[in-house]
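hey so i finally got around to running the thing on that chain from the lab meeting. sorry it took forever, my laptop kept dying and i had to restart like 3 times. anyway pasting the input first so we r on the same page abt which one it is
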Amino acid sequence: MTLSLRMAWRNLWRNKRRTWLTATAMAFSNVLLVFMIALQFGSYDMMIDNTLKVFSGQLQVQGEGYQENPKLETVVPDVLAVAGDLRKALPHAHVAPRAAAFALVSSEERSFGVQLIGVDPDSEPAVSTLPGLVVEGRYLSDPNASEIVIGAAMGRNLKVSAGDEITLLGSGRDGSFAAGVVTVVGFFETGSADMDRSFAEIPLDYFQDTFAMRGAGNSVAVALNSLDDVPNAMKAARAVAQPRGLAVLDWEALHPGLKQAIQADLSSAWFMYSVLIVLVAFSVLNTQLMSVMERTREFGVMSALGIKPRRLASLVMLETSLMAVIGLAIGVALGWAVSAYFSVHGFSYPGMEEMAQRFNLPGAMYPSVTFGTMMLGPSVVFLFCLLAAIYPALRLFRLRPVEAMRAV
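ok and heres what got predicted. didnt touch it at all, straight out
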């Protein structure tokens, strides 16, 4: 094996220019793949994180079946006590109890349906970015006050401004008639048209009084520092929820469409990556095929001396492997350096920061520098380079020593 390795290394540098051109093509493709895949997975992490921070949190405790059929009657009994126990079980997490109902909101001129959320004004800002998206007025402050924050689009539809009163009409948990008059104290803009025209928040205590909740809620949202904390947090949350007959849902169960969107985007991205990988593979095929054809006489002599075609083919494959290793090493090193730099300083393009500020989001993307993102693309390139060398290697099995030694 050592002799074969030495021969392969020597043969590789017979034509230094061709070897370096092919290895450089591999390295360049590996740099692109490492950075783009790291940036893509980093953008996925940011997309998930930003989506969850807007409202839902990384996991929620709900009444059994509430996610599939969100009815007011499917409750978390004594929701404040459940939230308190979750804070003890997850000391590094942020916990926010909530209740939700559908109601009719009416101004002097118009009426619209709305999803009404009862929130704790003290704990909600740590779980949701929505309080930071208030563009006019202020967010909720008094847990017992009859006040409301609504989407800017809803405010325009209702033709109300900060300080105006609107009427709430709905059905209570016990089937009673729920009604109240609340003061609009603020307007938010999330960037989602549906949310801005059909979503509103009021203090949880006021919600419970109005909708006859008797201390119950419909969910408890939990915000964690990282998605990596979700599995351990799920175990701790189940220890609190299951004795009460409650369900614990992670972000994938809360947002099934989000994971599907990521998978669809990843599939389309790999189609583009495949084009780059195939081009590199054809470059390797051309290089090794030329190398085999140029050394036909040499291979004929070696075959006449008793060396089997299998050994000759393995020599060609070993040369390809060494060249691919050079391209992989250089590409991964440079790709890691580029990705590591942008993982600290962030990657942005013109206009991204201004757009992100509008939605209370980070103004840059940060590549995800992990072993997987660093090696995924280069490993596929390495594999395709070996596959591309199979055809030149197989030609040696059809080699006829006498004819090969006469080749020029």
